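Support request, please re-run this one:
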Amino acid sequence: MITLEAEIRDVKVNPKHVRKAGKVPAVYYGSGKESTAISVARPPLEKAILEAGESTIISLKTPTGSFDALIHDVDHNPVTGEAIHVDFYIVAKDRKLEVDVPIEYTGTAPAEKDGGVVMKIMHELRIEALPSVLPSHFIVDLSSLAKINDQITVGDLKLGAGVETKVALTEVIALAAAPTKEEEVVVAPVDISAIEVEKKGKKEEEGEGAEEAAK
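Re-run finished. Output below.
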């Protein structure tokens, strides 16, 4: 389990000063715990966000004790992408959680050799489980898409003991679709003679207009 060490943060201190010191302002709450302002060193936090995401339990070590927690919400700098604030949600070991677990794709669909187009429809799955059996991700093997129109549904996933999906088992995760046919646009032939007649008519009108002006 990933462990993050946190310090109690003085809310009177401007968060910008916290970040300049190489730390990220954060807060933890949940499971009967009072909302508490903390800060976490940036390097280990960024690593935890990358490895654990928002669906893996981590150990949050604070001056008041260690808690099982989820990285519940992360605010990012819109330019650099760095975390600028994090919410940690303290979980109870005996209480089920509803979380969105990421889906990772692997393998190559044989249907692509027949011109099929693989469509990855779902990228995360809503599930419910106790913290102890919470999966960090689901792997979907595209090699089972043998021919066009084959599909992989939620019911095809191995969720694991104690894990319940909150999405219908018939929901499609990925499929091998038939290639789309581009319709040929028929361009009507250009009547050159009509264009020449039109131009000639305009010149004659312009000439007549000039004569009228001269009169």
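Residues 192-214 form the longest helix (23 residues). The longest strand covers residues 65-76.
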